[in-house]
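The passage that follows is intended for readers who have already worked through the single-chain material. We present the inputs for a multi-component assembly, then the predicted structure in tokenized form, and finally a short commentary. You are encouraged to pause after the input and sketch how you expect the pieces to fit together before reading on.
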Amino acid sequence: MTTFMEIKPTTSQGDSKSNAVVRGARAVEPLIFEKSVAGQRAVDLPPLDVPHADLPEELLGDGINLPEIGQHDLMTHYTHLSDRNFSVDGNFYPLGSCTMKHNPRINEWAAALPGLASLHPLQDDTQIQGALRLLYETRCFLEEISGLDEVCLQPAAGAHGEYTALKIIRAYFKDNGQPQRNIVLAPDNAHGTNPASCSMCGCSVNMVKSISGYTDLDDLRRQIDKHGAENIAAFMITNPNTAGLFDSKIAEAADIIHDAGAKLYLDGANMNAILGKTRPADFGADLMHFNTHKTFSTPHGCGGPGAGPIAVRKEFAPYLPIPQVIMADDGSFSLDRDRQKSIGKVRSFTCQFGVLVRCWTYISACGPEGLRNVAEKAVLNANYLAAKLRDVYEMPYFDPENGRFCAHEFVTVPEKLLAKGVTLNDIAKRMIDYDVHPPTMHWPVHDCLMIEPTETESKPTLDRFVSVMLNIAKQINEDASSLADAPTDATIRRADEVAAARKPMLIWE
Amino acid sequence: MPNPKECRFAETHEWLSIDEDVVTLGLTKYAVNELTDITYIEMKEPKSTVLPGESVGEVESVKTTSDVYSPIGGELLEVNDAVVADPSLLNSDPYGAGWLVRIRTTDPSPLDALMDRETYEIKYPE
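Having made your guess, compare it with the prediction:
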């Protein structure tokens, strides 16, 4: 049954909600199964031009319950759903740690070029020289940006890059007579993927304390002593870290870990803050991964497809996954499958090619100056917001008077506002009414918002966000209880998250 | 059910109650309030070895996932299957039906260094 569009009135708190849009106003969109009408079809199959053959009886089963729907109804269904999408293309999305920046459309243009989009992964190397050159150049770009010796493009996501690099570290130590090195150290504000990747590689993870957002080097030394230097495989660190701080003692941490005979792994999640400013190799990293969706503007696609290239020092090159794209002396390109010590393949074929085309396009379009500009604007935008908001939203790590600026993101623990009787959730939900995506919450510290504006937001957008946050603070100071029903303008208000987590309904019946 | 008055309290918000060599461990009311609604609980398997200061499992809420640490070492005797099946028990009765694990310890001495109830409650008022 059709649901008519419902136009919502402006809410009673309609202070500065000047450009609030009723987004996805269709209150209910039936499931595609509910729209199914027996006999409808979205595709016309071409006439059969091969001999008819019946499927064997034992393979037929009872049939499967697929929706039957016409082509236009199918289109309207998904368009209605996409209307309700909250996206980078439509809204400010300051989700800390995730780098929800604009994806320039030139990336899509390049990826759609028939010469790149129509390739088949089983084509012979001689037929895909252009594609191989693009991959080789991407390798070179990332080698130059990281300062490390060799890049592998194969991993399909950042966490997959972590996993691949840890497998390589394990293979390296095994090959060098130190198979017992299976303990990985990570700061207590590490991304959750870090310990997960370690466990997947048969390593145990031990936390290193941080003080005021920075790694506590004394605790790093203590952890090494506690577990025995000869058992440590690596220290995994994100720099700038998840508290939005560039750890300027990173080189000292690298020395400590190298003295223990272990390796420094850099989680490159926050590379957009340091592009062209410093190179991970210069501050002691031995291996790292890139998140192309964060740093090089490839799409954040609902968990995929992604790309998480890794960069390593020379000593790890023999263990990189195969095939590796290489250039011969005559300038021709090929896929090298001949590495005796390779850990093997970590995904099918060569890499996530379509994503890497976008990555190559972005780096080429920016050029070295453009990439430096990315880092400068990412840091400038975050510091601008932090400076504008700090009087109302307390920031434990932001203290510019004492030389403590933030990098590309910052953390606020709004204690004064919370003391008025609102929850952090109330503040976040109210942001939705202003068409702002709520920031990351409760991580890396309790009761915090982690805000990352990214380099692609303009000053008017940043200024509007400041007004939004100050308005919310004003509303809390006037009547904290009035936030309890936020968001008032969203199609879905407060979902029952507890019931959804405890008793998830995962299939349609 | 342990008497909270006789429990020892860890800085990482676990309570422990000892009966001869068996220690019952759970999360404090303060911790549970901070976590909000608990949605999932996963503890180590019975018979596994517990090392002092190490994690014995995880508690997940709509807000976050937290490790549960045991200040004492020993053998994990029993997991509270009821609370694993119905995590809301941890919210409604953290000092009773919401207990998490029982551990047989050979060295209860780390308990001495923990807080008593009064000290804990002054430091972390509910």
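Commentary: The two ends of chain B are 20 Å apart (CA to CA). Helices of chain B lie at 29-35, 81-85, 88-92, 117-123. How closely did your sketch match?
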